[in-house]
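Continuing the series of single-chain predictions for the mutant panel. This is the parent chain; the variants come on the following pages.
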Amino acid sequence: MRAALTRGLPGLLVALMLAALALVWLPAPGAHAATDVSTVAAALRKGPVYVDPAASGQLSATEADALAAKIKKADKPVFVAVLPADFPTANLFRNLRTDTGITGLYAIRLGDRFDARADSAVMSRSAVQNLVTSVQGVSDANTQLNEFTDRALANIHGAAPESWGGGSNDGGVSTGALIAVGAVAVIGGAGAYTVVRRNRRRQEEEQRAALDRLRVVVDEDITAFGEELDRLDFHPAEAGADDAMRADYERALDAYDQAKSSMAQARRPEDVRAVTQSLEEGRFSLAVLAARREGRPVPERRAPCFFDPRHGPSVADAAWTPAGGAPREVPVCKADWMRLTGGEQPAVREVETEYGRRPYWDAGPAYGPWAGGYFGGGLLPGLLVGTVLGSIMASPGYGAAYGTGYGDFGGGYDGGDVSGADFDSGDFGGGFGDGGGGDFGGGGGDFGGGF
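Parent structure:
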């Protein structure tokens, strides 16, 4: 037994030496086509454009560098990969998005085919589908990718990921790059945590600034309602007052107190919605009280005056057309109804903006929560169609920054945020080449299904 081991030792040593030499003489990884998604993802975490060595004939290094520079300059989360025609396509978008771990728009040129998917926070499915369709007939890869990128940069929300830094992307994978990826893997947890914290701090700062702008407007609303209560010549013990009237009066007082309390506790813009809801409740209670005291029928519950909710509950719907928009019916108070029927302009609520005083519907996304509390999520979209606020609130970017509903600020991740596998795979579906998303065939959503 011992003799047999001794005789076999030289052969074993030779085998080990040959194995060691093979490791030293392995060709550089960049000389071969990448065969897995992780290689593509690692490259896209470092820069916006990756060209597989086997597909370098489609997009040269110079063209790839120019495209990457354009995306970085725009500071947008657009990821472009050029892959060979035989690259595995099963769950390609979903797996690439998971491995990259960054919210954004992912475009892939695979052989002579092209498709894209995006997180809904940065671009809607229909927008992705339209962009993909617009370049499907372009055969030249450089032209197709640049046309797609130019149009995408004009529509996408969010910012470029911090991981891109200021470096360049050479479109290939060098030995040094693989070593760097290994180092990143060691510290990846801490690095990702730092980036998430930075993005969260940025979002918190934006929300504080939005709340400060809202606070001025909401304080004006609270003050105006308090003055209405002061002018009210009702006393619970006066002659003719009954329990119903006293209940209306108490509800109005409670609404005033609740509005002040809610505003004092507000920490985020969406908290303002509870304040304006209370004010709307209080003003309706005063309208009911007035009707009881005057012997009129109790009014039906209607939305407040669209032009200025401080005017109180509306009494009718009137035709109105915003500048550059389509006509629609909006709820109006009696005074504004008379102005409109007389050919005059309504008394519009204006707020301060960086461009001067503007109607609240042209003042920016921060006023979504304020308007949502008065008009509610179901009524508001139709009222605001064609206005600046309506356009912003209908965009995916508003859903990411100010929540998924009208006036709600949500969590979620902005474009460029490191989310890891925390994304909605139902937003990226269908097979490759179907035009971008579950609405247009296949299963799943933005990152699901086949390529």
